[in-house]
Specification:
It is built from four helices and ten strands; from the N terminus they run E-E-E-E-E-E-E-H-E-E-H-E-H-H. The protein has helices at about 100-110, 130-135, 145-150, 160, and strands spanning about 15-20, 35-40, 45-50, 60-65, 75, 90-95, 95-100, 115-120, 125, 140-145. The strands form two sheets. A five-stranded antiparallel β-sheet has the order 9-3-2-1-10. The protein has a five-stranded mixed β-sheet with strand order 4-8-5-7-6. The protein has a single domain (about 15-155), classed as VC0467-like (3-Layer(aba) Sandwich), CATH 3.40.1740.10. The protein is an alpha+beta fold. Helices cover about 15% and strands about 25% of the residues. The radius of gyration is 17 Å and the shape is globular.
Length: about 170
C-alpha cells in the first residue's frame, strides 16, 4: 500500500543522548553528544550539546547544535522551578533537562554564575530511516540522558564520560 512504512516501529531515541562512536570521523559529528528531541518514522532531530561556538558580544556562551540552521537560539536548562506548567515550551525533554523560553533567558542574565543551561544555535536532523542506518552501521550509540550529566560534566569531557566502554568484537577467523 502506498504511503505506509513497511518497517516495524523501533524504540524512539528521544530523550536520550546519541553518542558518536570513535569510528565516526565526520568533522561535524566526530566525538559529538546529541540530545535527541524527536525520533519517529518521519525522521529525527536533536541538539549537539558539546560544541561551544566562538561568538562575540553575547552575554552567555553559545553552542553549535548541528549543521541545520534554526531561527534564533534554542535553550536547554536544568531548573524545574523555571518551568511554567501552563506552557508547552518548558517541557522536560529528558530527566532534569528542560526546553527554555524568553523568561528563562532573563533568569540566566540575572544569575551570571548559573551554569545549568545551554544556549544553542542550529540543530542536527536526519531524514526517515537515515539515523537508523547510521546506528546499524555502528556510527552511534544511544545512552540515557540526564541533566546531572549534561550540566555537571565539563563540556570538554562530556563525550568521553557518556561514551560506553567498547568491548572489542571477537574475530571469527
Amino acid at each position: 500500500m502506498a504511503g505506509t512504512n513497511p518497517l516495524p516501529p523501533k524504540p524512539s531515541s528521544a530523550g536520550s543522548f546519541l553518542v558518536a562512536k570513535p569510528k565516526l570521523k565526520d568533522p561535524i559529528f566526530g566525538q559529538s553528544v546529541v540530545l535527541m528531541l524527536q525520533h519517529s518514522f518521519e525522521g529525527a532531530y536533536g541538539l549537539v550539546v558539546n560544541r561551544p561556538a566562538k561568538v562575540e558580544n553575547m552575554p552567555f556562551p553559545v553552542f553549535i547544535g548541528g549543521p541545520c540552521e534554526s531561527q534564533g537560539l534554542l535553550m536547554l536548562h536544568g531548573h524545574a522551578e523555571w518551568v511554567d506548567p501552563s506552557s508547552e515550551s518548558g517541557r522536560e525533554v529528558a530527566p532534569g533537562i528542560f526546553l527554555g523560553d524568553a523568561s528563562c533567558i532573563e533568569r540566566v542574565q540575572a544569575s551570571p554564575d548559573d551554569k545549568r543551561y545551554r544556549m544553542i544555535a542550529g540543530y542536527a536532523g536526519w531524514g526517515p530511516g537515515q539515523l537508523e542506518g547510521e546506528i546499524a552501521d555502528g556510527a552511534w550509540v544511544i545512552v540515557p540522558a540526564s541533566g546531572q550529566v549534561l550540566f555537571e560534566t565539563p563540556v570538554e569531557d562530556l563525550w568521553s564520560v557518556v561514551l560506553p566502554v567498547m568491548i572489542p568484537q571477537p574475530s571469527l577467523n
